[in-house]
Amino acid sequence: MEVGRTVPGGPAGETLGAAGPADERIEPLACGRDAADVWDHAVEGTLDAHERDCPHCRAAAADALGLDGVVHRMAAERPVPPPSVLDGVMQAVIDTVTAELRPQDLLALDSPAGPARLSRAAAARVLRHVVDGMDGMRARSCRIEPVGSGSGRTGTNGAAGDGAATNGGGADPFGVTVAITVTARFGVDLASVTARVRQMVVAAGEQALGVPVRSVDIAVVDLWDEP
Amino acid sequence: MTPPVRLTVGDAVVARIAAATAREVPGVVALRPDLAQTLLGLAGSLLGDRSAGDALSAAGASAAVQDGRAEIALTLVTTLGHNARDLSAAVQRAVAARVRAETGLDAVVRVTVADVLLDVPQAERESKQSPQVPPPGSR
């Protein structure tokens, strides 16, 4: 701070750096006193007669007191994290918590190399994306259920190998049924276009996800018209 | 005569190897850290990471070593255009092989594909459209 101005050669800075026992004496002030001693005396309020009168010592003491005041003021301030940091932390926590995958949110994948699972929401998003890419079709909702979990609960909460034994599907632990609702453009041939939806969903399940789609239920829930 | 040597490999070592290996598998966009790892990463980035800045990140991977076997769990994100099942198998093989090579441990690798990103680069999307023609006989 202002140390360099009043203490020529900057010895006071080095004194601060030494931080502790004054075992190494450095260049004294012009009056012969050691700046570190003057600083200590100033902070403790034990300046002697010379230090109170000598201009060099008074400058050093003033610096010490000024710095002391600044330090205490800053120490008394309660640091508040900037809003951007708080927002960042909260957002990261919220993202992680909402992305937390529970066992029932996962589909078992038929990997030969060990237990593998796929987020059900991600799988549904892929299938919706595929249908959205078709001419005259928009996907609305897409529900994927493992085959054999008739009542909606899945048995995939263990290793895939265990899942094969415990899953209600028994012989088909990896197969899924897909229920998708779509809206169609007014005028398209619903019968043929839904047949294509079924084919696309089965193909995407196999090729993009690696999930064998055993059946596809398609509900056309609305029509829209293109201006 | 040399005394017997016991080599113990820590959970964190295995987790870091697994994470680093998985990240290199084509199709793996990212590993997804769990809540604890997210908070640790945040703390590290805000406070300045004092814990060895060069350490391999284990975010998205966890491991437990027991009786010479390693149980590894990986949570990863991929993109459309990579078959999730085949990608999982590829990651499992790569990680198991690497862990065995580096530590001598047999590893069970549990892979969770947490997300499939839809915005595929254009070139990749085009090459993907063709195989999407439904196979004959599909129900």
TrEMBL record, chain A:
<feature type="compositionally biased region" description="Gly residues">
    <location>
        <begin position="149"/>
        <end position="168"/>
    </location>
</feature>
<feature type="region of interest" description="Disordered">
    <location>
        <begin position="1"/>
        <end position="21"/>
    </location>
</feature>
<protein>
    <recommendedName>
        <fullName>Asp23/Gls24 family envelope stress response protein</fullName>
    </recommendedName>
</protein>
<feature type="region of interest" description="Disordered">
    <location>
        <begin position="146"/>
        <end position="168"/>
    </location>
</feature>
TrEMBL record, chain B:
<dbReference type="Pfam" id="PF03780">
    <property type="entry name" value="Asp23"/>
</dbReference>
<dbReference type="InterPro" id="IPR005531">
    <property type="entry name" value="Asp23"/>
</dbReference>
<protein>
    <recommendedName>
        <fullName>Alkaline shock family protein YloU</fullName>
    </recommendedName>
</protein>
<comment type="similarity">
    <text>Belongs to the asp23 family.</text>
</comment>
